[in-house]
Write a structure and sequence with these properties.
The longest helix has 22 residues, at about 165-185. About 20% of the residues lie in helices and about 25% in strands. The chain has helices spanning about 100-120, 150-160, 165-185, 245-265, 270-275, 280-285, 290-300, 310-315, and strands spanning about 40-45, 45-55, 60-65, 70-80, 85, 95, 130-135, 140-145, 150, 190, 200, 205-210, 215, 325-335, 340-345, 350, 375-380, 385-390, 395, 400, 405-410, 415, 420-430. The chain is built from 8 helices and 23 strands. It has a 6-stranded antiparallel sheet with strand order 1-2-3-4-8-7, with helices on one face. Strands 15-14-23-22-19-20 form a 6-stranded antiparallel sheet, with no helix packed on it. The N and C termini lie far apart (about 65 Å). The protein is globular. The chain has about 425 residues and is an alpha+beta fold.
Length: about 425
């Protein structure tokens, strides 16, 4: 197949008609950027460049194919907007003016530092994994795992403008605990948390991406390239070059992200809030969140960082308060089975046949998927949600559930993995 006919999305199908014969990718929906590398550029004798995944102020991210490991990956290229241009060969980078040279070299070093940051976090599964990084074409690149999934912002569109509270609690909770590890173990904070930079994979796992603004907590270093802020998500200290930043900086952004995800309404930007504009309490826009969670968001959005929730773990713990009397949720084999599992509050639990993929393994029957279904115990409203994600289906009273849709299950309700391959019961007991 001629390279110009090869699909830049799946690297297998023919796209000569504009639509891939293999994956259905449509050329008309492809992102365009005149600064991009040509398709099928070959980097480091290893990476074939495909379509654009994203554009930012400092770089372009491509979908690529690793010919050595025979796998799809993502390649990020340092291309700061307004500072560089492509040479005639459309491959190499040149600085547009001498006055930009220092900024470009400093930015390139920071770009490589991002790769080093990610390399330190290979054992944190919620952080995008780095595979390789190198200098080439008078600029810098790093290679990441390719993530099949959607950002929180994309999920909001899929859900019709806002994410259901149980899903948002689970996603933000996972992101928050990952940030806690990043802060404590690597001594790094992200500085760009938003719905664009939290991804949910096809199998429901949360991934933090785009550490382009990441910075070590200990030690200050000069910055000539300005930080690109996402207004509304950035706390006051990010608007000042002299204010200290820390874990509380990411806490503010995470709280804004949660607020926006469950309400579809943005918190006014920090400068606007300083000017007197107030945001509506979460409880007013999302009553099912409850007083405790609403107050937790308030504490995380305090403008003065000294009085703000200081750690991501503290913010996430505030989601764990139950409404009314405390209740303990459980899952057990139905029909008198002795095996029983306790379900955590406000956290998604995966049920399947493989401990490498699932949190609870009630059977190892081959007809049960590795990740068969998900349970979510909403302790705030004392509700149990079930979602099928299997091949052979999850059933309630003999009816197969629609894949990907969340269903409410009553206290003592039963469901089956497959059609009675494994029968289970869920419920809760007030303490």
């Amino acid at each position: 197949m001629r390279e110009e006919y090869r699909c830049p999305n799946c690297f297998q199908g023919n796209i000569s008609t504009g639509i891939c014969t293999c994956c259905g990718f449509d050329r008309q929906e492809e992102k365009q950027n005149p600064m991009r590398l040509p398709e099928w550029s070959f980097l480091a004798d290893r990476y074939l460049i495909g379509r654009i995944l994203g554009n930012g102020g400092f770089g372009i991210t491509y979908k690529a194919f690793d010919v050595l490991n025979q796998c799809v990956c993502a390649v990020k290229e340092f291309v700061p907007v307004g500072v560089v241009a492509r040479r005639e060969d459309r491959i190499h980078i040149t600085v547009t003016s001498k006055s930009n040279t220092e900024d470009f070299e400093h930015g390139k070093r920071r770009f490589m530092e991002e790769a080093e940051v990610l390399k330190k976090l290979t054992d944190v599964p919620e952080v995008v994994q780095i595979m390789d990084y190198f200098m080439l074409n008078d600029t810098a690149y790093f290679v990441m795992e390719y993530i099949e999934g959607a950002t929180l912002k994309q999920l909001m569109k899929i859900y019709g403008g806002k994410i259901p509270l149980p899903d948002a609690v689970s996603m933000i909770g996972s992101a928050g605990m990952a940030l806690e590890q990043v802060h404590r173990r690597a001594g790094i904070f992200h500085r760009d948390i938003s719905p664009d930079n939290i991804m949910v994979t096809a199998d429901g796992r949360v991934k933090l991406i785009d550490f382009g603004n990441a910075k070590h907590i200990i030690g200050k270093r000069s910055q000539t390239l300005s930080v690109i802020l996402k207004h509304g998500y950035a706390p006051p200290e990010q608007y000042s070059s002299t204010s200290s930043q820390g874990s509380y900086t990411d806490v503010y952004s995470l709280a804004v992200t949660f607020y926006y995800a469950v309400t579809g309404i943005m918190v006014p930007s920090a400068p606007d809030r300083f000017g007197g504009e107030e945001y509506r309490p979460l409880l007013e826009l999302c009553p099912q969140a409850g007083q405790r969670v609403s107050q937790a968001v308030d504490r995380a959005l305090v403008l003065n960082s000294k009085n703000r929730t200081s750690s991501a773990a503290e913010f996430v713990r505030d989601f764990s308060f139950s409404k009314g009397s405390s209740a303990t949720a459980y899952l057990k084999l139905s029909g008198g089975g002795r095996q029983e599992w306790s379900l955590p509050e406000n956290k998604k639990v995966v049920i399947g046949r493989s401990s490498g993929w699932a949190d609870i393994v009630p059977t190892n029957d081959g007809k049960v998927s590795k990740q068969h279904c998900e349970l979510f115990w909403d302790s705030l409203e004392q509700r149990m949600y079930l979602r099928d994600c299997s091949t052979n289906g999850t059933f309630i009273d003999g009816a197969r559930l629609q894949k990907g849709k969340a269903y409410l299950i009553p206290n003592g309700g039963q469901f089956s993995l497959g059609n009675h391959i494994c029968d289970l019961e869920v419920g809760w007991k007030n303490g």
